[in-house]
């Protein structure tokens, strides 16, 4: 072919790829790892079986069933407490390198405190971990995926600074019990959701509405708790267990609404408020909260008549203590939003949104899912990965969640479309932009309890029949697609060698 013809082929390919999102025909790196994920409250069920204690989601779904779609709860969920062997068989069939699941704190420590350990709960996780290892699947374990033991909530929950110590004691116990087999730990899943939805907006358990105050107090404890657990691992376990510890931070990509300076500044402020709030203290070379949060919240607090900032302050010692407490960057991301400059919200009732003062929306032309917040915007994830790479000094990134919701169809072509396009953009970030992404986690292994949406939004690679007492699992088309991606490391029929 002549140069001109080659150029045309190239331009057409780029056009097709960017317009229709055709996946690229390159392979994932040889050592790239694929996995899938679930979380204890969303799949285990057995909420009061074998000595498990009550947690805030048990409590919340039972007393506020009116707030959950169809009044549902996780009492039985996927019944994974009894059916974990089937789960492992599905994972084995998929061929995943790892399975990310979370420990139910109150299944191990019914009261939340370490004075009383519930042996059947410990056995459950020992058995699950053993079954995974026998099948060559690495356990990736999250210590906290939103299900706080109720007795700790009765002490105020995460806004109570003493919870950092109780969490650290629970973490030490988990490292002791399971650390010989578990080499990848995540302390918290999406602390932003714990704090903002749980103690700010008050729409998730425990339902405390304290916008602009409780959310900041919660985050302050969670960051200290994470750092304590990390240092405990470092000092007491790393030498013998030789694993990795990190904290999962989640965000959308925030795209400026236009290329005006104002919109660009607004989008940057939004990602700092949304993501930097948690990521900066741990992952940024300078540590601490983002300066834009420190400044704006201090200023607005003063104008509102508070004697000090509603954003708590870290001492210089705490900044140093929290900074760098990670062994890889753990990222959950699903979608993108657009951000527009807005004049500062009027001084009045404090809130996190007013502290940030930007306008956020999604483009109505973007493909949708069964979840109102989840639009299909694959290019946003590539931009986010590049932003993280630049902002946090080129960390190793593991995508610990990414996925798509529908209404549970077995031939789930929309999910396949989502995965292939997101994975293609992630691969471009790796190969073309030099971002160090080393792993990918599909949310979720199977349909499960989707918080306030109950069982109405399905994220699974496997369908679960929630009307059947057996909670029968059935493979979907997307599981076959993902299995092929894992086996070939390729998103299309044939990849360049
Ligand atoms: C993750 O959160 C969670 O880690 C996982 O547990 C969950 O199943 C999965 O995503 C799928 O959602 O008032 O209903 O609009 C907003 C992803 C809810 C981030 C949804 C909370 C997205 C944060 C509340 N969002 N989620 S409302």
In CATH terms, the superfamily is Glycosidases
Low-confidence stretches: none
Helix vs. strand class? alpha/beta
Bound small-molecule species: ligand GBE
Tally of individual helices: 17
| Share of helix, binned | 40-55%
**How much of the polypeptide forms β-strand, as a percent range?**
5-15%
Question: Which key terms come to mind for this protein?
Answer:
497 residues, alpha/beta, TIM Barrel, eight-stranded parallel beta barrel, 43% helix, binds ligand GBE
Task: Please tell me about this protein's structure.
The chain has 497 residues and is an alpha/beta fold. The chain has a single domain, classed as TIM Barrel (Alpha-Beta Barrel), CATH 3.20.20. 43% of the residues lie in helices and 13% in strands. The protein has 17 helices and 13 strands. The strands form three sheets. The chain has an eight-stranded parallel β-barrel with strand order 1-2-3-4-5-7-10-11, surrounded by five helices. Helix 16 links the parallel strand 10 and strand 11. Helix 4 runs parallel beside helix 6. The radius of gyration is 22 Å and the shape is globular. The relative contact order is 0.14. The model has no long low-confidence stretch (mean pLDDT 96). The structure holds ligand GBE. Ligand GBE is lined by residues 39, 42, 189-190, 193, 203, 250, 332, 334, 373, 401, 443, 450, 452, 459.
